[in-house]
Specification:
The complex is a heterodimer of chains A (326) and B (330). With 326 residues, chain A is an all-alpha fold. Chain A has two domains: 2-77, no CATH class; 102-281, MetI-like fold (Orthogonal Bundle). Chain A contains 14 helices and no strands. In chain A, helix 5 crosses helix 8, helix 7 (148-162) crosses helix 8 and helix 8 runs antiparallel to helix 11. The longest helix of chain A is centred in the N-terminal third of the chain and has 36 residues, at 91-126. Chain A starts with a helix and ends in a 6-residue tail after the last helix. Chain B has two domains: 4-230, P-loop containing nucleotide triphosphate hydrolases (Rossmann fold), CATH 3.40.50; 249-318, no CATH class. In chain B, helix 4 (110-118) crosses helix 5 (126-139) and helix 4 (110-118) runs parallel beside helix 7. Chain B has twelve helices and twelve strands. With 330 residues, chain B is α/β, with parallel strands linked by helices. Chain B has an eight-stranded mixed sheet with strand order 6-7-8-3-9-10-12-11, sandwiched between helices. Classes of the chains: A mainly alpha (326), B alpha/beta (330). The interface between A and B is medium-sized, with 24 and 30 residues. Chain B: GO terms for molecular function: ATP binding; ATP hydrolysis activity. Chain B: InterPro entries: AAA+_ATPase, ABC_Ni/Peptide_Import, ABC_transporter-like_ATP-bd, ABC_transporter-like_CS, Oligopep_ABC_C, P-loop_NTPase. Chain B: It holds the Pfam family oligo_HPY.
Chain lengths: 326, 330
């Protein structure tokens, strides 16, 4: 059994590596297809053709695409993501500075999304097809169909411009104190949470409705347990599989959404950096960032995979014994 | 059989459907005394499960239109608040359900599911509840109870699962136990042992048992009194001996004739009942069994036969215009 488990883990790692290789290759060559030249962009329209050619040679942009790809991949395998054309700063360093902001933003947005979605799903599942359920579902669809930046702009308009509760823009690091730090993140986190909230509420509501129809819920009722206990101790856990899958996928997509939200709120995160790097055709940096984002996506989903049997132990034992005693 | 534990009087349960109201239970009365085992027999759709769920209170005024009276130990169950009813469930009234696999929680270990019921009693702390749960598992005949405590439902056999369900149901020594087709999902050898367990528990804990079943054999061997239900009504009621040995209502006779018997030889092949049970949204005007009855007379079609005691045996009631003569009965 241990050998098969080892084999399974090995296969997973291999698959992960293959996904990352495909992602980096695609990313590299699609960037190479983009019009625009980083050297030209850096030096401006006034620069001479000679100066541009010299800079291109310095940056190694004169080499054939395949060769550049080989160099880059070679560096990646040794843990070197290369240096930004624009600043000369190593991409690893940039990530070290910027990733914490994005990670914090995403975590905060997920806390908000789950904090609202779980209760909303529970209420809707218990009162399905009533006014409450319909009102919630209307709210959810509104959240789902409103783009993040629209929510962001509305939040800025109400909470900053009119009420003055939070700063409209800019980032305050932890060193400025917990209060200012959190208030600089709260609005972008809310803007980012909208879609996740909607997806989570829908998935969990549907699974809960299904679970509440099960015989063991009637048995729990017949035991005289309270509705709260039935919901949290009996119904919730068997209904979490769909939600955890959804979280894995959503968190991966959120890294992409941070591009817009971070730019809108002026947060120095990965999304903001990525937007700048694409505009400047800073190939090396874009590749580095995309590779890290893809790795995070794959890792989050691998983690969800590992969590399944923890949430529902039947999944673990059904792998061990085919079928089961009847 | 002194004080009545459960008294059901003229119970009517009506569901709203797209085609109009459906009377699943129509004017049923029933008594259960402490330590008494009452069987309810009928085909699927006869209303027996709805009757037991309503009598327990699981089906309430929110789910259906209910009229009549249900009294448990003199208290009006239908007038109770949800909280009051919940206080009875699991402590005074319990139920064993048909399919033990889907009735047990798929993730929580079975022992924990018993502990949860035991902890309804505020005096029961975690350690005591655990020890008691293992005792209960042992009592219902689960070997290696201590080890099985941590098992999950899918790791147990069908018979063991139902034993766990019974342990959950009797955990707080209820006075009234409902069993809704408790052995239908089990194979015959396991069935016999589970039914013996019910007999034992009823005797030892003097539990009043309401056993719902479509299986006349089960009811004949493991209950004291029986009510035969057809299309939401009770068609015959009395002690097991009276009803099943000398049935009067034609439906009961037909049911008995439909059972294959080895000891009767080739000449007595089972006689199936033709036709289907009536549509309960638009039931027949008179006796509901009349359209399928081989002995229907003119009155059967338009007059409802009242459930009345037999002249010679007062405890034996039946609703039939043309009853099976006593001497012909087996």
């Amino acid at each position: 059994m241990n050998r098969t488990r080892l084999l399974r883990v090995g296969l997973k790692v291999l698959r992960l590596a293959a996904v990352l290789l495909v992602v980096s290759t695609l990313c590299f060559f699609s960037l190479a297809l983009l019009p625009g030249d980083p050297a030209r962009l850096m030096l401006g329209d006034a620069a001479t053709a000679d100066a541009v050619a010299t800079l291109r040679a310095q940056l190694g942009l004169d080499l054939p695409t395949m060769e550049r790809f080989g160099h880059w991949i070679g560096g990646v395998l040794q843990g070197d993501l290369g240096e930004s054309y624009r600043t000369g700063q190593s991409v690893t360093e940039i990530l070290g500075e910027r990733a914490p902001v994005t990670v914090e933003l995403i975590v905060l947005s997920q806390v908000i999304a789950l904090g609202l979605a779980v209760p909303a799903a529970i209420v809707a599942a218990h009162r399905r097809r009533t006014g409450t359920d319909r009102a919630l579902s209307l709210w959810v669809f509104t959240a789902l169909s409103t783009p993040d930046f629209v929510v962001g702009v509305v939040l800025i308009w109400i909470l900053s411009v009119h009420l003055g509760w939070f700063p409209a823009n800019g980032y305050a690091p932890w060193s400025d104190g917990v209060g200012p730090h959190l208030s600089s993140l709260i609005m972008p986190a809310i803007a980012l949470a909208g879609t996740s909230f909607a997806l989570y509420q829908r998935v969990l509501r549907a699974d809960l409705v299904e679970t509440l129809r099960q015989d063991y819920i009637e048995v729990a009722r017949a035991k005289g347990l309270s509705l709260t206990r039935i919901t949290f101790r009996h119904a919730l856990r068997p209904s979490l599989l769909g939600l955890s899958t959804q979280i894995g996928v959503t968190v991966g997509m959120l890294i992409g959404s941070t591009v817009v939200v971070e730019s809108l709120f002026g947060l120095p995160g990965i999304g903001d950096e990525l937007a700048g790097a694409v505009t400047a055709r800073d190939y090396v940096e874009v590749q580095g960032l995309v590779l890290v984002i893809a790795t995070c996506f794959v890792l989050v989903n691998a983690l969800v995979d590992v969590l399944y049997p923890v949430i529902d132990p039947r999944l673990a034992s059904s792998r061990r014994t085919r079928g089961g005693a009847r | 059989m002194s004080e009545p534990l459960l008294q059901v009087r003229d119970l009517v349960v009506e569901f709203r459907t797209a085609n109009g109201p459906l009377r699943a239970v129509d004017g049923v009365s029933l008594d259960v005394a402490r330590g008494e085992r009452v069987g309810i027999v009928g085909e699927s759709g006869s209303g027996k499960s709805v009757l037991s769920r309503t009598a327990m209170g699981l089906l309430g005024r929110k789910d259906a239109r209910i009229s009549g009276e249900i009294t448990f130990r003199g208290q009006d169950l239908l007038a109770m608040s949800d909280k009051q009813r919940r206080d009875l469930w699991g402590r005074e009234i319990a139920m064993v359900f048909q399919d033990p696999l889907s009735s047990l929680h798929p993730i929580t270990p079975v022992g924990q599911q018993i502990v949860e019921t035991l902890r309804r009693d505020p005096a029961m702390d975690k350690t005591k509840a655990r020890a008691r749960a293992i005792e209960l598992l042992d009592m219902v005949g689960i070997p290696q109870a201590e080890r099985r405590f941590r098992s999950r439902a899918h790791e147990l056999s069908g018979g063991m699962r139902q034993r766990v369900m019974i342990a959950i149901a009797v955990a707080n020594s209820p006075s009234l136990l409902f069993a809704d087709e408790p052995t239908t999902a089990l194979d015959v050898t396991v069935q016999a042992r589970i039914l013996e367990l019910f007999d034992e528990l009823c005797r030892e804990l003097s539990i009043g048992l309401v056993m719902v079943s479509h299986d006349l054999g089960v009811v004949a061997r493991h209950t004291d009194a029986v009510s035969v239900m057809y299309a939401g009504r009770i068609s015959e009621q009395g002690t097991v001996d009276d009803v099943l040995r000398s049935p009067r209502m034609r439906y009961t006779s037909a049911l008995l004739a439909a059972i294959p018997r080895i000891d009767h030889g080739r000449r007595a092949l089972p006689q199936p009942i033709g036709g289907l049970p009536p549509d309960l949204v638009n039931p027949p005007a008179g006796c509901r069994f009349a359209p399928r009855c081989a002995h229907a007379v003119a009155a059967c079609a338009d007059q409802v036969p009242p459930l009345e005691p037999a002249a010679d045996v007062p405890g034996h009631a039946f609703a039939c215009w043309n009853p099976t003569p006593t001497e012909v009965a087996r």
